[in-house]
Amino acid sequence: MSFKVAVVGATGNVGREMLNILAERKFPVSEVVALASRRSMGVDVSYGDKILKCKTLEHFDFAGTDICLMSAGSSVSKEWSPKIAAQGAVVIDNSSCWRYDQEVPLVVPEVNAAHLDGWRKKGIVANPNCSTAQLVVVLKPLHERFRIRRVVVATYQSVSGAGKEGMDELFTQTKAIFVNDPVDHKKFTKQIAFNVIPHIDVFMEDGYTKEEWKMMVETKKIIDPKIKLTATCARVPVFIGHSEAVNIEFEEPVTADEARAVLRAAPGVLVVDKHEDGGYVSPLECAGEDASFVSRIREDMTVENGLSLWCVSDNLRKGAALNAIQIAETMVSRGLLQKKKAA
């Protein structure tokens, strides 16, 4: 059985990665359609060894479409996802628009695939925030074995999380510094080249940023509402790959060796944890890879049943595009999708 798949936002970083991963993983497609805004009509995008010309979202008829991979931002998703779902396609949305709707499953397949059973309520499945996706893949197996009480996480997030404009700004600023040109910033609140900015998304009344709030709320929805989580999210001058320093307090006793064994057996996780120079994974090595890599696993002697670890992942893949394709694959394997007949 093969499916007609539409990718909305096909010219963006995540949309292009979705097309790459569909081809890489040989997802069973009968047709792939690239959709974008009117200004991107006719732009060429790659799908495997094929070139697709972008069509406009507003003029596309979704009759006969089985799956819509939505990566065009919250405002577009808010307007279009219900319309597309009403025509019978499942919408897998990468924006934050539907994540906190109790009738919309928020899914990381390695963690809570069973939540997909409720997708028909609105015809939409939400992808979590990029920093949340890589984290919950690591937390879930540890929670099942040792029961997590509290998580403290500091993120070091790459500029690709802010889109093409973020990547362009890092490149332009770095070049300007080397040739002694003026350094301007537009996408970020401060210079990002050779700097760290402790601010992602808008500030909220309690002093947290929305990016930090997202991690708190999404982890609870995906794994367990009883988990307490606090986060500090920073933007760093890295092109691809989010890093996280994670401190976890458990209800049950845990050793570093026990945690390594649990994580080595967990789907979607790769442990690289040698106590030697270079015996850990950095964002440079994780770019283009599918896993959440875990290193620096050690016991926290300042609290009872505490553990600290380092986690890195490609934010454009597991943090966005790959997770969306994995959701589609899981829906197919669980028999939740039936191919529609073209109108």
UniProtKB/TrEMBL annotation:
Query: Which top-level enzyme class is recorded in the Swiss-Prot or TrEMBL entry?
Result: oxidoreductase
Classification via InterPro entries: Asp_semialdehyde_DH, Asp_semialdehyde_DH_beta, NAD(P)-bd_dom_sf, Semialdehyde_DH_NAD-bd, Semialdhyde_DH_dimer_dom
Tell me the Gene Ontology biological-process terms attached to this UniProt entry: 'de novo' L-methionine biosynthetic process; diaminopimelate biosynthetic process; isoleucine biosynthetic process; lysine biosynthetic process via diaminopimelate; threonine biosynthetic process
Gene Ontology molecular function: any one? aspartate-semialdehyde dehydrogenase activity
Q: Which SMART domains match?
A: Semialdhyde_dh
Enzyme Commission number, as recorded: 1.2.1.11
| Chain residues that bind substrate | Q157, R235
Give start and end of each Semialdehyde dehydrogenase NAD-binding domain: 4-119
Q: Which UniProt keywords apply?
A: Amino-acid biosynthesis, Diaminopimelate biosynthesis, Lysine biosynthesis, Methionine biosynthesis, NADP, Oxidoreductase, Threonine biosynthesis
Give me the reactions it catalyses: L-aspartate 4-semialdehyde + phosphate + NADP(+) = 4-phospho-L-aspartate + NADPH + H(+)
- Residues annotated for NADP(+) binding in this entry: T11, G12, N13, V14, R39, S40, S160, G161, P182, N315
Q: Which residues bind phosphate?
A: R99
Active site per database record: C130, H242
Q: In which pathway does it act?
A: Amino-acid biosynthesis; L-threonine biosynthesis; L-threonine from L-aspartate: step 2/5; Amino-acid biosynthesis; L-lysine biosynthesis via DAP pathway; (S)-tetrahydrodipicolinate from L-aspartate: step 2/4; Amino-acid biosynthesis; L-methionine biosynthesis via de novo pathway; L-homoserine from L-aspartate: step 2/3
What does the protein in this record do?
Answer: Catalyzes the NADPH-dependent formation of L-aspartate-semialdehyde (L-ASA) by the reductive dephosphorylation of L-aspartyl-4-phosphate.
Q: How does it assemble?
A: Homodimer.
Q: Which family does it belong to?
A: Belongs to the aspartate-semialdehyde dehydrogenase family.
User: Which NCBIfam families is this protein grouped with?
Assistant: asd_B, PRK14874.1
What name goes with this protein?
A: Aspartate-semialdehyde dehydrogenase
Q: Which organism is it from?
A: Candidatus Raskinella chloraquaticus
